[in-house]
Design a protein that fits this description.
CATH superfamily: P-loop containing nucleotide triphosphate hydrolases
CATH architecture: 3-Layer(aba) Sandwich
CATH topology: Rossmann fold
Radius of gyration: 19 Å
Shape: globular
Strand content: 15-25%
Number of strands: 10
Strand order of the largest sheet: 6-7-8-3-9-10
Number of helices: 9
Oligomer: single chain
Structural class: alpha/beta
Length: 265
């Protein structure tokens, strides 16, 4: 990996060469501002089908905003973004509905509907959006709950579950829409430390099954173990990108070196 001579102007980036499949997420020259505060300053990124991307960086570097742009939750001012060949077009409700069926998102807070049982939470979107009949939706929900280790919780209410269990239900709910890409935004940050592992094990199993994942995470050991590529964001830019061994073992810029050393302070 080449070293940037002026790190403020020339972030270090390895080529988007990955052994995995074709690009499924393509982001070009993406810029996003909140009033006068430019949060994303020209993001170029391709994520290949089946690739697991970990996005790391300090708070305020634009990580979560980038994920929210991919899911259409944020409107960006410049650039282009497509998922599985479909361009994100905020002015077209039809295009946005189609895109959101391709992209699942799991948030820090679990966002389960408190008045619905676990099973009904998972069944809701497939029945409403995909017009799946109730019997098929229930069968799928039970299968997904088994997949995340909660087969016995179909009739439980969210308040009866631990935070880790609620987050696993949120993963099952996202998977119910059969997305092409799954976005994970700091999904363990609201959990007690002893519950983090059960959620990460589910995500690791998805990675092993070939799910395309874009994960904003502060779990560095997990990022190193599971991801195909790590992206370090700094001040709204992709500052360094490379294989986990390169990013964690041989950081090229002072900014990444400082970020990694701060984790051990």
């Amino acid at each position: 990996m080449a070293t940037a001579t002026d790190t403020s102007a020339s972030p270090v980036a390895a080529p988007d060469a990955s052994p995995v499949g074709r690009p499924i997420v393509e982001i070009t020259a993406l810029r996003k501002s909140y009033d006068t505060n430019e949060v994303l300053k020209g993001i170029d990124l391709k994520v290949r089908k089946g690739e697991v991307i970990a996005i790391i960086g300090k708070s305020g570097s634009g990580k979560s905003t980038l994920l929210r742009c991919v899911n259409g939750l944020e409107v960006f001012q410049e650039g282009a973004l497509s998922v599985d060949g479909q361009k994100l077009m905020h002015e077209s409700p039809t295009a946005m509905r189609a895109l959101r069926q391709q992209v699942g998102m799991i948030f820090q807070s679990f966002n389960l509907f408190p008045h619905l049982s676990v099973g009904r939470n998972i069944m809701l979107a497939p029945t409403l959006v995909k017009a799946r009949d109730a019997k098929a939706a229930e069968a799928q929900a039970r299968k997904l709950l088994e997949r995340v280790g909660l087969a016995e919780k179909f009739d439980a209410m969210p308040e009866q579950l631990s935070g880790g269990q609620q987050q696993r239900v949120a993963i099952a709910r996202a998977l119910a829409m059969e997305p092409q890409v799954l976005l994970c935004d700091e999904i363990t940050s609201a959990l007690d430390p002893e519950l983090v592992g059960e959620v990460l094990r589910v995500v690791e199993s998805l990675a092993l099954e070939g799910m395309t994942l874009m994960m904003v995470t502060h779990e560095m050991a997990f990022a190193r173990k599971v991801s195909d590529r790590v992206i370090f964001m700094h001040q709204g830019r992709v500052h360094e990108t490379g294989a986990p061994a390169e990013i964690f073992g041989n950081p090229q810029t002072p900014e990444l070196q400082q970020f990694l050393s701060s984790l051990h302070d």
